[in-house]
Amino acid sequence: MENRIDQDKIPFRTLYNGDKIPCVGLGTFGSDKYGPEQVSEAVYGAVKYGYRLIDCASVYQNEDRIGEVLQRIMEEKVADRRELFVTSKVWNDMHGEGKVTESCKKSLADLKLDYIDLYFVHWPFPNYHAPGCSGDSRNPDSRPFSTEEFMVAWRQCEELVDQGLVRHIGMSNMTIPKLEAVLPLCRIRPAALEMELHPSFQQQELFDYAVSRGILPIGYCPIGSPSRPERDRTEEDVADTALPAVAAAALAHGVHPAVICLKWAAQRGQVPIPFSVKEPQYISNLKCVTEDPLTEEEMEAIRREDRNCRLIKGQVFLWEGAKGWEDLWDPDGVIVK
Ligand SMILES: NC(=O)c1ccc[n+]([C@@H]2O[C@H](COP(=O)([O-])OP(=O)(O)OC[C@H]3O[C@@H](n4cnc5c(N)ncnc54)[C@H](OP(=O)(O)O)[C@@H]3O)[C@@H](O)[C@H]2O)c1
User: Fold this and answer.
1) Ligand 1 within 6 A of 273 CB?
2) Which residue's CA is minimally distant from atom 33 of ligand 1?
3) Residue 216 in contact with residue 53, Cβ under 8 Å?
């Protein structure tokens, strides 16, 4: 492996309470393609190289293996606990009374940690679909968003902070109307919003909304998720790495277009969490934010590449009577019920 990166070379972002978070992390969703062994070995290699932020979730079904690797990392003094920033997320079937706490404790046990740095409500719906299910599968019990139900989950997240089991809490896959409904009810505000963000899907309005309220946007699918599962592919999808402004910048900087997507993300201000189990890839994905930034003109050219191309449409969470996946995202600015 190339020499590890000095921690003082990696830019940090600041959460609203002043705590720091690295400006790039490693995703750990194997997309039904990479198993727990490969993903956890990548976590080991990535932390050795210099990553400190690891984005986990119970539904990725690999937290137990990642936990073994985190323990190895600490025993070998590659990084100590306080340097690491580990996230996890409660899955949709665990939103009910007592269930969020149960799920968090399971993640803590699997990850072999005393606390999680940032714990997310993964989706705002309690709608369950089995991991690896097909794109047209539906659960007859699925329901539209309910502020009351969401707050049952959020109150438990707040209690996890009180108990010292998590340091920060966050929301994921939210919209402005849903945030407008829940933010006034929060005793502890979300520190971060995990959302799909890549050059062809910039969500400028939601991004600005979060930033203006001191909520850090964390960008998933930052490269446009080229290895995403079949259920998350449609013919209209755009490949971010093929966008003209991304390809032109890649040529100018002599790097893979994936790396340009990450430079753009980090310079824009979100925290990208690219996934890779391949050492040369995850090395370049961290190194790229420490050198050779994009010019203002390149940033502007990529800003103009937004195509409103949502990749993770969430159609498996739809309820009976919903018109289509757009309903999950409140297209008219009001919560779709
Ligand atoms: N909160 C949520 O609901 C949510 C939803 C989705 C994802 N996430 C999180 O976000 C993370 C990232 O999203 P993602 O995995 O879907 O998409 P991504 O990071 O945009 O894409 C990952 C893929 O890009 C390719 N790649 C990575 N680095 C590269 C490089 N330097 N050069 C060329 N190709 C490169 C790899 O493809 P190959 O494997 O083919 O080489 C890799 O599998 C996930 O792992 C997960 O932690 C969260």
Assistant:
1) yes
2) 258
3) no
Q: Find the 229 Cα to ligand 1 centroid distance in Å.
A: 11
Nearest CA to ligand 1 atom 26: 276
Distance between terminal CA atoms of the chain? 51
What is the residue type of 277? V
CATH number of 7-235+268-277+309-329: 3.20.20.100
The pTM score is 0.97
Angle of helix 296-303 relative to helix 244-253, nearest 10 degrees, comes to: 160
Question: How is 281-305 classified by DSSP, letter by letter?
Answer: HHHHHHHGGGS-PPPHHHHHHHHTT
Structural tokens at position 169: 């809490």
Please tell me the predicted confidence (pLDDT) of residue 2. 61
Q: How far is CA 313 from CA 6, 133, 320, in A?
A: 38, 14, 17
Query: Using CA atoms, how far apart are residues 52 and 249, in angstroms rounded to an integer?
Result: 27
Residue 228 alpha carbon to ligand 1 centre in Å: 8
126 pLDDT above the threshold of 80: yes
Torsional sign, CA 300, 290, 73, 192: negative
Secondary structure class of 333 (helix, strand, coil):
coil
Report the separation in Å between the CA atom of 131 and the middle of ligand 1, taken as the mean of its atom positions: 17
Please count the residues of the chain.
Answer: 337
As beta bridge partners, residue 330 has none
Cβ(172)–Cβ(193) under 8 Å?
yes
Tokens of 306: 């937004």
Share of the chain above pLDDT 90, in %: 91
At 64, which helix (H) or strand (E)? helix 63-75
Per-residue model confidence as pLDDT tens digits over 131-171: 677 777 778 889 999 999 999 999 999 999 999 999 999 99
